[in-house]
Amino acid sequence: MEEKVIEIKSLGVNYGEKEVLKNIDLNVYKGTIIGYIGPNGAGKSTTIKILLGLNRNYSGEVKIFGQDIKNQNYNFKKNIGYVPEVAKLYENLNAREYLTFIGQLYNLSYDDCDKKAHALMEILGIEHAYESRLSSFSKGMKQKVIIISALMHNPDILFLDEPLSGLDANSVLVIKEIISKLRDEGKTIFYSSHIMEVVEKISDRILLLKDGRIIADGNFEEIKKLNNKESLEEVFNDLTGFEDHSMIADKFVKVIKEV
Ligand SMILES: Nc1ncnc2c1ncn2[C@@H]1O[C@H](COP(=O)(O)OP(=O)(O)OP(=O)(O)O)[C@@H](O)[C@H]1O
Predict the structure, then answer these.
(1) What is Dmax (Cα atoms) for the chain?
(2) Residue in 14, 22, 36, 44 to alter for ligand 1 test, most ligand atoms within 8 A of Cβ
(3) Closest Cα to atom 3, ligand 1: which residue?
(4) What DSSP assignment string belongs to 86-110?
(5) ABC transporter domain location, by residue (predicted)?
(6) How far apart are the C-alpha atoms of 99 and 93, rounded to whole Å?
(7) What mean pLDDT, rounded, does the chain reach?
(8) pTM to 2 decimal places
(9) Ligand 1 pocket check for 54: Cβ under 6 Å
(10) What's the CA-to-centroid distance between 46 and ligand 1, angstroms?
């Protein structure tokens, strides 16, 4: 039987009067890449923050590896890696200092972190900057460091929020391949992105969140067929009720031309 890694029952979150997540039920199984998509403000980050243990203000039940995360200390976090959409790096540190620091937070020894961090930077082609301050890194180099820092402790669950941001086309190919291979190793991956072409290709299962509810759940073929569309972008625009792109673009261009 498939192993449940995440179990969410009747999850609800309110910010004041606003109901941000509405009664979400979800089981996620080992070795799956979940494409987690939805319009801005749909509640994606809110869900991820709960699963990371950063927000305990919710109703319902959330279990990770069978353990209710509300009653736990923070041990379950050792098994989780997170690439946030906007990561705060300690830019005054060099890559070695930063990665050994993060690795030690996850209980790896300094020497293990040092070896692993250097090897991973070498594989991604940035080992020449191992002793350089992060403030001098290009956007893509920083993103590679963030990805390495999320993976150094070999977590079983990975949350990736726009992980390809700032990477060139070659690096994108490498990281996508790494994500697939990690899935093949049995890791469970939440892949959150607004780039539909990538989500469509990489995901085993796609969850579309709108106004705090899951309104589509299935693999790309199922979702495409069910909605009679060719691409995930079309399904997304259709299900989130957006048909005004052309009219908005016309208005925008008209105003630009006016003065
Ligand atoms: N701390 C907060 N206090 C009040 N409202 C909040 C808070 N955090 C999020 N919200 C609201 O909750 C809703 C869901 O936000 P969330 O960040 O989860 O959306 P999202 O799907 O991740 O969006 P995006 O694609 O823009 O990152 C939004 O309406 C947002 O304004």
Answers:
(1) 65
(2) 44
(3) 15
(4) S----TTSBHHHHHHHHHHHTT--H
(5) 6-236
(6) 9
(7) 92
(8) 0.90
(9) no
(10) 6
